[in-house]
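Re: [ENG-882] Designed sequences occasionally contain unexpected residues at chain ends

Forwarding the minimal case from QA. Structure tokens:
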């Protein structure tokens, strides 16, 4: 890597009455509690305070520029301050910021629902809004359980869920119940409802010690066994399609999801696809399920839904499930669920424009050469002495660092190897947020080839600096 990548300060801009950088840093330490953050450590360091953004860059209060290597934690698609998204938000603000979907409707919520149905896997025809990925998953779980009670009471109580180990579906209690990332979840075990769990297709560390494709995806056998013996009590199977993101970007082998779909159909268990991370082009297609021609029974979306502008989510489902909730009022088949900001017009207006940008700018088409270039540039990193595996699907990349490549011995979590790499990358103007020993690179879909190349170069040198020192 050549040149000095330390970002230059942008002169100008005086901040007359706004608090100073030092004042803000002090107030942050005094009043804020940051998510997934050890605050005792946080308060010992100068916080990086982001003031502005443009395209793939974030700017701190001193005007230093950083590449947004995580898409602001997996939400941004078309870059920051996209003129059309800014305009859509302002236009809606000129009408109304919020009114409720409880007993009322609003144009952006209506139009967006129609658009979502058009782009969703065929057969998903109904849209139920909420505010974030976790709530979208909660909605799917509750819909599944109530559906079986109302539509097929003769089926007996189908109210349990099957999911994969290392799954992540959000941080609320239902979503945590169907997930299992030990570090995040173990404290809350006493609050969780019981579930059935199967091993994930984590090919790099295959518990069956087999290799794809000669394994014939033998890891599906235990799932079929569970379905066979428990389908009478199972409401649904919950899965992150194609990529188990929070587990460290575990990329499922091709054909896996399709087989899961077939198994769910055969055993009358609803397939709940959590597309919160994978949705809206992140894996190269609008939704990950579409790469395998799969239509889930319920689909949760959020993160990229507004292009990274506003908190908004939706649970999409089929006519069959929707019909299961119809009846006279006094049958009380209503889906009794909703949030204060459900169908928020600002969020829906910007989400609608997000989808228009996909069409206007041919986002998915223009993504293809970037995905290919990214793969090409990452390839040489596979020979670095502490890179175990590089996993990529579309614009999602996980680089798993290991102490020893031959034995695949992981770095002990306490060494915080991923964190050190991210800290090093920041010195060179790239913001990353690792998942344990996995370096995550998740650029906005609008990233330029030059920006992408620079991100990979910084990631490479940061990994080398930290693991080879
Ligand atoms: C981020 C994420 C969630 C949770 O979404 P929030 O908006 O953070 O509640 C759920 N599922 C998956 C797959 C995610 O990546």
């Amino acid at each position: 890597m050549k040149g000095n990548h330390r970002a230059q300060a942008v002169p100008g801009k005086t901040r007359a009455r706004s608090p100073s950088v030092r004042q803000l840093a002090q107030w942050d330490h005094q009043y804020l509690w940051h998510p997934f953050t050890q605050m005792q450590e946080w308060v010992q360091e100068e916080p990086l305070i982001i003031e502005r953004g443009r395209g793939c860059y974030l700017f701190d209060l001193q005007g230093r520029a950083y590449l947004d290597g995580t898409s602001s934690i997996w939400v941004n698609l078309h870059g920051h301050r996209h003129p059309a998204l800014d305009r859509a938000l302002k236009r809606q603000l000129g009408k109304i910021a919020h009114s409720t979907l409880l007993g009322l409707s609003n144009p952006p919520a209506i139009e967006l629902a129609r658009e979502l149905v058009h782009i969703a896997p065929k057969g998903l025809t109904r849209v139920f809004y909420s505010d974030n990925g976790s709530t979208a998953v909660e909605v799917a779980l509750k819909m599944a359980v109530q559906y079986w009670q109302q539509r097929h009471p003769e089926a007996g109580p189908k109210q349990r869920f099957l999911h994969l180990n290392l799954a992540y579906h959000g941080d609320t209690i239902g979503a945590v119940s169907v997930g299992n990332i030990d570090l995040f979840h173990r404290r809350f075990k006493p609050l969780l409802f019981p579930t059935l769990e199967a091993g994930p297709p984590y090919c790099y560390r295959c518990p069956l010690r087999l290799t794809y494709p000669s394994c014939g995806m033998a890891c599906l056998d235990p799932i079929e066994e569970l379905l066979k013996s428990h389908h009478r009590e199972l409401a649904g199977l919950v899965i992150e399609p194609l990529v188990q993101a929070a587990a460290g970007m575990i990329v499922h082998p091709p054909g896996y999801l399709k087989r899961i779909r077939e198994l769910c159909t055969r055993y009358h268990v609803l397939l709940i696809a959590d597309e919160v991370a994978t949705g809206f082009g992140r894996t190269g297609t609008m939704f990950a399920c579409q790469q395998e021609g799969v239509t889930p029974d319920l689909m949760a979306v959020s993160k990229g839904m507004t292009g990274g502008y506003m908190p908004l989510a939706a649970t999409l489902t089929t006519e069959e499930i929707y019909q299961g909730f119809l009846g006279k009022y006094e049958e009380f088949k209503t889906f009794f669920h909703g949030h204060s900001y459900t169908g928020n017009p600002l969020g829906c207006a910007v989400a609608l424009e997000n989808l228009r940008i996909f069409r206007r700018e041919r986002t998915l088409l223009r993504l293809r050469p970037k995905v290919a270039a990214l793969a090409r540039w990452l390839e040489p990193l596979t020979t670095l002495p502490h890179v175990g595996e590089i996993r990529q699907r579309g614009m999602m990349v996980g680089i798993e660092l290991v102490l020893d490549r031959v034995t695949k011995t992981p770095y002990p979590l306490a060494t915080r190897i991923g964190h050190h790499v991210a800290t090093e990358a920041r010195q060179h103007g790239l913001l990353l947020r690792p998942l344990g020993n996995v370096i995550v690179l998740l650029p906005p879909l609008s990233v330029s080839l030059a920006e992408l190349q620079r991100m990979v170069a910084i990631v490479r040198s940061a990994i080398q600096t930290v693991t080879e020192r």
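QA comment: On inspection the terminal residues look reasonable. The CA atoms of residues 156 and 232 lie 7 Å apart. Proposing we downgrade this to a documentation issue.
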